[in-house]
Amino acid sequence: MGGTALAQAGSSAVAQEHGGHGAATPESPGETPPPHGDHGGMITVGTVDDARNGFDPHALLTDWETGIVSRDASGRTTREFEITAEEKEIEIAPGLMFPAWTYNGRVPGPSLRATEGDRLRIRLRNLGSHPHTLHFHGIHSAWMDGVPGAGVVEPGGEFTYEFDAFPFGCHLYHCHFVPLRRHIHKGMYGAFVIDPDPARHPDHEAVARSRLLGTPENAGWQELLMVMNAFDTNFDDENEVYAVNTVAHAYAKRPIPIDRARPVRVYLVNITEFDPINSFHLHANFFDYYDHGTTLTPTLRTVDTIMQCQAQRGILEFSFKDHEPGLYMFHAHQSEFAELGWMGNFEVRA
Fold first, then answer.
1. When comparing pLDDT for 14 and 305, which is higher?
2. Does the structural domain 53-202 have CATH classification 1.10.1740.10?
3. What's the CA gap between 134 and 153, in Å, rounded?
4. Of 278, 176, 275, which Cα lies nearest the Cα of 227?
5. CA–CA separation, 67 vs 327, rounded Å?
6. How does pLDDT run across 225-280, given as a tens digit for each residue?
């Protein structure tokens, strides 16, 4: 943690503007509020080159990788995924490059999505210069755990992890080679979502169908993936840049459009290294929270702030149907994190 270090990392990349908390109140109640996404002027200046990065944080919100799908002899769905480990410089704030270790050339890595009970095969090819693994937060055998002695892939090698998709929920995967904190903070992680199979949950079938990708019920929701992460740019074991989906203030500069008529579901994952807790706070609204996403009824109701330790995750559900159009902020409720990149806006549209 350290704003001074972020400034030292490159003043052109993170120069701060000064000013009040947005412009004046609209003259009429029905008028769209003016932009106020800079949290009092504390925001990075400039834009990140998404094309050079090879990924766009806005595309990452909805970019689900469902694999190559087939059926086995028993009729069960099999999903096959291909992941490469590779080293790549990425831009995490305007003009500020970070020497990342990536899955498929992006941070976070591909967002894998399957259905409860599917057979999964995930082939990891290591194109980097260090040993790597895939450790999935889910249920699998010891030989598929992706830890030293079980699924380590040396440079130039490959390994296929195979297991059944259980339990349903909002999960993640990450490299589990040593030193662990180095492999994680360099960018080797991604989301792993298992949708519930409605046939297995007759008492909550409607809720399960609303989470199952591809159903009409699911299409009625606006689903977003948010991976809370951070970057130690000078390798002093303290973070200088904080973000959701890697790029500081990406959703402050380009707010996330929200259709007021449709509910919102956020798959929230915290993979921040060097800080024990991260958080999500929603302005002017409240949400229901499903810890780890492994229940079909909320574990918390009507809250506006949630804390997560590293690797904790959950599902947030909320609606803006009774709100007026405008910008609604969300951010970490550690002020330092917000000012160093972890802050954005929903743009609610009629």
1. 305
2. no
3. 9
4. 278
5. 35
6. 999 999 999 999 999 999 999 999 999 999 999 999 999 999 999 999 999 999 99
Reading phi first (left if > 0) and then psi (alpha if -120 to 50, else beta), residue 183 is in alpha
Distances (CA, A) of 2 to 19, 37, 238, 240: 22, 22, 7, 6
How much helix, strand and coil, in percent to the nearest 5, is found in the chain?
A: 15, 40, 45
Domains 35-51+220-349 and 53-202 equal at CATH topology level: yes
The owner of tokens 């909002």 is 170
| Per-residue 3-state assignment (H helix, E strand, C coil) for 115-148 | ECCCEEEEEEEECCCCCECCEECCCCCHHHCCEC
Annotated domain spans of the chain: 35-51+220-349, 53-202
pLDDT at residue 197 in the model: 98
Residue 121 has a CB neighbour count (10 Å cut-off) of: 15
**Could you give the CA distance from residue 248 to residue 201 in angstroms, rounded to a whole number?**
39
**C-alpha to C-alpha distances, 169 to 128, 191, 292, nearest whole angstrom:** 31, 11, 6
Q: Hey, is 265 helix, strand or coil? A: strand
Q: Which two tokens stand for residue 17?
A: 């503007």
Q: Which CATH architecture has domain 35-51+220-349?
A: Sandwich (2.60)
In the chain, what's the furthest Cα-to-Cα distance?
66
Question: Which amino acid is located at 52 in the chain?
Answer: R
Q: Which two tokens stand for residue 350?
A: 């009629």
d(Cα 103, Cα 76) in Å, to the nearest integer?
28
Predicted local confidence at residue 42, as pLDDT: 75
pTM of the model: 0.90
